[in-house]
Amino acid sequence: MFKVLWLQSGGCGGCSMSLLCADTADFAAMWRHAGIELLWHPSLSLESGAELLALLGDVLQGRRQVDALCIEGALLRGPHGTGRFHVLAGTDTPMVDWVRRLAAVATHVVAVGSCAAWGGITATGPNPTDACGLQFEGDRPGGLLGAGFVARGGLPVVNVAGCPTHPGWVTDTLMALASGGFDATALDALQRPRFYADQLVHHGCARNEFYEFKASAEKPSDLGCMMEHMGCKGTQAHADCNTRLWNGEGSCTRGGYACISCTEPGFQDPGHPFHLTPKLAGIPIGLPTDMPKAWFVALASLSKSATPRRVKQNATADHLVVTPAIRRTRLK
Fold first, then answer.
1. Which of helix, strand or coil describes residue 217?
2. Residues 6+ apart with CB under 8 A from 269
3. How far is CA 189 from the centre of its chain?
């Protein structure tokens, strides 16, 4: 069995909640069927207090094996580097010290969520707790374990980033590690699993026709593209949210919310309201990452001039005002 130890540091527990909302009836049984054993989880395990401390002692002494140390939540190094803003209950030892010691004996170390990966929401603003990720501080390598950290299995920290993570990202990562078919080439430059990070939220977005014609939403209930006015970063955010839907049905953009790029370092401090798109001379600053700005401006102008009446009117409505025209089916 591939043994997983899950600890929670500075965070809201949202990634655990996301896992509990997985679209399988019994994710724990699915894990067992895949050969994954959950040694301990702060919300799902019956053991607590002395029983947990005994387990951690056995792990550190080599009597119990940990194949994946999963950390949820940012690591709190304050005040003044002591880590005493977060002391593990029942001990006098800061959580950051427990994580360092356990990471040294685990086969793999997995950051579950953007807080554990980069610091995330916990590190926002002035960051009074000196929160950081396991191996990154924002987009800078380092974090708690240091840029050079490599776990016993030969991999750096695997950053399953997201706020929260999709339950499928977590499960698929653990299954891949358990199968032994996951190596450094399976991680992108920010150490995220490429099976979801090599895609963009824009891919599969139900609003893509509006994006193509630059027919934009103007208020939250509108059907149009949310990039131009409402802060959507789906063309920049690395994730498969619109092709791997939550519970097979939902995503932020399908629910009428702009993508805030929660899988990326620093998403929590965009420098502007999440629901607004910053612009320069009327042009959105956050354009698609792999498209020259001049090309985008030219394409946008051409697209807007060719926008069908149906698309233009539907973009600023909360329901279909004009339906697609019916034509003869034998198209030439």
1. coil
2. 124, 125
3. 15
Fold of 199-320: Cytochrome-c3 Hydrogenase; Chain A, domain 2 (4.10.480)
Q: Which helix (H) or strand (E) holds 51?
A: helix 50-60
Query: Residue 213: is it exposed, middle or buried by C-beta count within 10 angstroms (0-12/13-18/19+)?
Result: buried
* Separation CA 290–CA 239 (nearest Å): 15
Asked if 73 and 38 count as a contact pair (C-beta separation under 8 A), the reply is no
The whole-angstrom distance between residue 60's C-alpha and the CA centroid of its chain comes to 30
CATH of 2-197, picked from 3.40.50.700, 1.10.3720.10, 3.40.50.300, 3.40.630.30, is 3.40.50.700
Residues 95-142 pLDDT 10s: 999 999 999 999 999 999 999 999 999 999 999 999 999 999 999 999
Question: Which is it for strands 140-141 and 136-137: parallel, antiparallel or unpaired?
Answer: antiparallel
Among candidate residues 220, 219, 171, 178, the one with its CA nearest the CA of residue 196: 171
Q: Are 230 and 259 in contact (CB under 8 A)?
A: no
What are the sequence ranges of the domains in the chain?
2-197, 199-320
pLDDT of residue 21: 85
pTM, whole model, 2 decimals? 0.93
Structure tokens at 43: 């919300």
Q: What is the mean pLDDT of the chain?
A: 93
Cα dihedral angle (81, 111, 288, 285), rounded to 10 degrees?
Answer: -20
